[in-house]
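User: Could you write out the 3D structure of this protein bound to pantoate? I've included everything you need below.
Assistant: Certainly. Input first, then the structure.
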Amino acid sequence: MYIFTKIADLQQFLSSQLGSIGFVPTMGALHIGHLSLIEKSKSETNLTVCSIFVNPTQFNDKKDFDKYPNTIEADIEKLASVDTDVLFLPSVDEMYPNGTEKIKQYEIGYLDTVLDGKFRPGHFNGVCVVVHKLLDAVKPTHLFMGEKDFQQCLVVKRLLEIIKSDIQLITCPTRREPNGLAMSSRNERLSKGGREKASAIHYVLKSIKSEQTKSNFADLESRFVQYLDSNSFETEYILLADANTLELLLDFDPAKKMVVLIASKLEGVRLIDNLRIN
Ligand code: PAF
């Protein structure tokens, strides 16, 4: 596996390669979910580039940024174990030579006003800034992202429209722990007991899916917010949305493709998850 920390060196290497390039952007603390994206990329493209960069401009909460897990040595081993071709590991100065204060603003529109757009102001703009910079550096033909970050996938799809890119975005299913907990780098910050407890989020998603024909969504939402919060969670939202547009739905509408999305904090760690329910 080649490791580059400078954009110029990465680009010099890539310019000598033929065929398609698959790109998996990450913030490190890699888990099976990330490795499944690498494997998917390897199966569909000629060369796979993974980036590890904890992007300061997408953290609306400085404490969250400071506490983001850093496991670079283990990450490199994991990437090598699945035969990743290239790791791009830039510094903040390499990605933001003019600093992180004044950043480009993207016309994300509606997607930036709901769910995590509403609860994490500036977050998706920061994601667009860094993904755009990374795409300019790597120039991939295919981009692989995980559906656990459902809204992020739609925002990146919007980014590709804004920048008129023909990069193919491939979204891959969420990988879960045996107890149902969605794999996430943030899980590392949970205690052992917390990881067990956190499986309640997936339980709630599955329960809403199975009860959709018996109850209205508002009743399920208030019941399950109460359920989570009486089990030490602090729930930000449980929402039902159109899976294509993320338009919020007041109640189940089988004529639409629907997704239920949750954001809830446990032990001070903000967890998100989602489930398509039809
Ligand atoms: O999903 C993530 O890990 C990050 O938001 C991403 C896409 C790597 C951008 O920093």
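The longest strand covers residues 234-242.
User: Perfect, thank you.
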